[in-house]
Write a structure and sequence with these properties.
The complex is a heterodimer of chains A (360) and B (208). Chain A has 360 residues and is of the alpha/beta class. Chain A is built from 10 helices and 15 strands. In chain A, the strands form 3 sheets. A 6-stranded parallel beta sheet of chain A has the order 12-11-10-13-14-15, sandwiched between helices. In chain A, strands 4, 5, 7, 8 and 9 form a 5-stranded antiparallel beta sheet that branches. Chain A has a 4-stranded antiparallel beta sheet with strand order 1-2-3-6, with no helix packed on it. Classes of the chains: A alpha/beta (360), B mainly alpha (208).
Chain lengths: 360, 208
């Protein structure tokens, strides 16, 4: 529930209303832009006939302003002021209007919330489906099928495995996904007794990687294999990190390189250096700009969503596979929505287009 | 208990952050902001852990005279010198010594690494564009058209090249890119749900 007041003055129509879907901290003022007006400012008062104080200066191109200096539950009146050749001019007073709390952001709930809820429902449905013992089939992902072979190759050659978890910290979902894959890779390398290097770009990622690798070694009964010095912090600097990792590749010649996580400009420098050392390379990132570089320089590449699916895929646990199946069903739904949206626009059915219109 | 408490923390914080996206109430917004501030505080503390790890590993390398120990010596030397210049010397990080080291040592080294990218792009393109399969041939043709269309001589050869490049970039390229981005976000939501519900917990170590 919000109050609206508006008034038409000559050609200037000023409207004020409580900003929708916010925490009751602002009031929105709108008016048609008029580039002939000079020295515009918004003034505010607690009474319609009281003293109006200036809040902000405006340019003639402005047509909207959010006043975030209001207090909740108090009535305000607004007035525009500008300079004419004859002197100062004013719009009539708009109001009263008061800022109020909305419990839910309905714009977000209607669009994003609904779609997320549907996707969650699909995933939970398939998880319960898997828990009931039904067998689920997931499409084969070549990059993940090759993980074990790649580690086996390093073992046979007596060379180490290099795992690069990206250059972002653990607040990045890609780094979390990478740590989940690292757990599986560490289990295999520990089982085979192969050296695993994990150079990190952030100290927090290093701590997490150390814990993941240590637990993996314990899980497969090889706690003696774990060497804390092999999971080390290098530097937070992007190109400093790249040169250090390149140095590891050149000096220690790992037979298998994993690049899984967030990468920017360094992706191709790492992958090309790894290629020059003859290592088998498996890369994966959700940075769509970097995917072509990995595809060109690596043997296998996990494309976007496959990075997030990797841990569930490698575990082969029914419950985790169920979540992948639900995700696939969600994808089919979204493809159907896109196709229907295209047809609806072509036929001029704007209701469907408006349903997904972007608003704050 | 070793697993339960972290899982409860993950669920509570994750759920709060998700709720903050839909609930504009000040308490929820403030709490979500507070959680993010806590993360920044913890991350700042970890800088020290990183430096301690760096010093420990490189000191061991020097003491035990391991292979290439000289590089560790140089690394630690510069680390301590930069800390000395930044904390002790006149002007600190704005002082002449720190600025000299930054501008004439760090920046050129960083730029050198970045400039390697130009050569690596050439070598990677050479391999990627070999027309061994129909897909690689298509890639080669598209790449040649884009390269020619982006340079002035392309316009001289045929006036239609820039428009063709524009079409390739805005229609097939954007369509494929959006498809990938769509998949990425669906995968992200799915993984977020697995983490929130505690189905995916291998990132905590110990696999399942």
């Amino acid at each position: 529930m919000f109050w609206i007041g508006f008034l038409i003055i000559n050609t200037l129509n000023i409207q004020v209303f409580d900003t929708p879907n916010d925490d009751g901290s602002s009031i929105t003022i709108t008016w048609p832009a008029d580039i002939s007006l000079k020295g515009m400012e918004i003034t505010r008062s607690l009474k319609s006939s009281g003293d109006f104080e200036k809040i902000v200066d405006l340019t003639a191109r402005d047509s909207i302003f959010q006043d975030a200096t209001v207090q909740r539950g108090i009535d305000y009146y607004y007035r525009l002021k500008w300079n004419d050749p004859e002197g100062e001019s004013f719009s009539n007073v708009a109001g009263p209007v008061r800022a109020q709390v909305q419990l839910l952001n309905f714009f977000r709930l209607q669009n994003i919330g609904l779609l997320i809820a549907i996707l969650f429902a699909f995933i939970i449905f398939y998880i319960s489906h898997a828990q009931s013992g039904k067998k689920l089939t997931i499409r084969r992902i070549p990059g993940l099928t090759a993980v074990e072979d790649a580690i086996g190759r390093a073992t046979e050659m007596g060379k180490p495995v290099l795992y690069v978890p990206g250059i972002n910290d653990i607040d990045d979902p890609q780094t979390i996904a990478s740590m989940s894959i690292l757990a599986r890779v560490a289990e295999k390398t520990a089982e085979y007794g192969t050296t695993l290097f994990v150079p990190t770009c952030h100290a927090m990622a290093m701590t997490m990687a150390q814990q993941v690798v240590k637990e993996a070694a314990i899980k497969v009964g090889r706690p003696d294999w774990y060497n804390i010095d092999n999971i080390r912090y290098l530097t937070d600097d992007q190109f400093g990190y790249v040169s250090a990792v390149d140095g590891i590749m050149i000096r220690d010649r790992p037979a298998t390189n994993f690049y899984l996580g967030t990468f920017y400009a360094e992706s191709l420098i790492l992958a090309e250096t790894g290629h020059s050392t003859g290592a088998i390379q498996i890369a994966g990132t959700a940075m769509s700009d970097q995917l072509p570089f990995f595809v060109a320089a690596c043997d296998y590449t996990l494309l976007g969503e496959e990075l997030y699916a990797a841990s569930a895929y490698l575990s082969q646990e029914p419950v985790q596979l169920g979540s992948l199946k639900g995700q696939d069903l969600g994808k089919i739904l979204f493809i159907a929505l896109i196709l229907f949206g295209v047809v609806a626009r072509l036929l001029g059915w704007n209701f469907f287009y408006n349903l997904f219109s972007v608003q704050q | 208990m070793k697993r339960t408490i972290p899982l409860v923390i993950v669920f509570t914080c994750g759920f709060f952050m998700l709720a903050a996206f839909f609930i504009p109430v000040r308490f929820v917004q403030d709490t979500s902001q507070m959680l993010q501030n806590w993360y920044i505080g913890v991350a700042a503390f970890f800088v020290f852990i990183g430096i301690i790890n760096l010093i420990k590993i490189n000191l061991e390398k020097i003491q035990r005279r391991l292979r290439d120990w000289q590089y560790s010596f140089i690394l630690l030397g510069f680390l301590f010198f930069m800390m000395f210049a930044g904390f002790v010397l006149r002007g600190h990080t704005e002082g002449p010594v720190f600025q000299y080291m930054f501008n004439y040592f760090y920046t050129p080294c960083s730029a050198t690494m970045f400039s390697l990218l130009a050569f690596f792009v050439a070598s990677a393109s050479f391999r990627a564009f070999r027309a061994k399969t129909p897909e690689a041939t298509l890639l080669l043709i598209a790449a040649v058209i884009v390269m020619i269309g982006r340079i002035p001589v392309g316009y001289g050869i045929w006036h239609g090249f820039p428009s063709l490049v524009e079409w390739i970039m805005t229609v097939p390229n954007t369509a494929a890119n959006r498809g990938i981005i769509f998949g990425i976000n669906l995968g992200l939501i799915s993984m977020a749900l697995r983490v929130l519900l505690g189905i995916e917990r291998s990132y905590m170590g110990g696999g399942d």
